[in-house]
Amino acid sequence: MAGAAHLELVSGVAQLRPEDAMVEAMLRGWRAQQKARGLREDTV
């Protein structure tokens, strides 16, 4: 599934800035979901 957390985050890796990594992963996942729905890049 596009945007699934397990595709965005790596298990077993210590994040130096976990909050930033989580937000970035959320944004990448959201963008992947929108693109999977067929939305244009300028809409996303």
How would you describe the overall organization of this protein?
The protein is an all-alpha fold. It has one domain. 52% of the residues lie in helices and 0% in strands. It has 2 helices and no strands. The mean pLDDT is 81.
**Tally of DSSP helical segments:** 2
Biggest sheet character: none
In whole angstroms, the N-to-C terminal distance is 18 Å
Count of separate structural domains: 1
Unreliable stretches (pLDDT < 50, length at least 5) are none
Decide which structural class fits the backbone.
Answer: mainly alpha
Residues in helix, %: 40-55%
Mean pLDDT level = 81
Number of strands: 0
H/E series, N to C?
HH
> Overall 3D geometry?
elongated
Radius of gyration: 12 Å
Beta percentage is: under 5%
Care to give the gist of this entry?
The chain has 44 residues and is mainly alpha-helical. The protein is built from two helices and no strands.
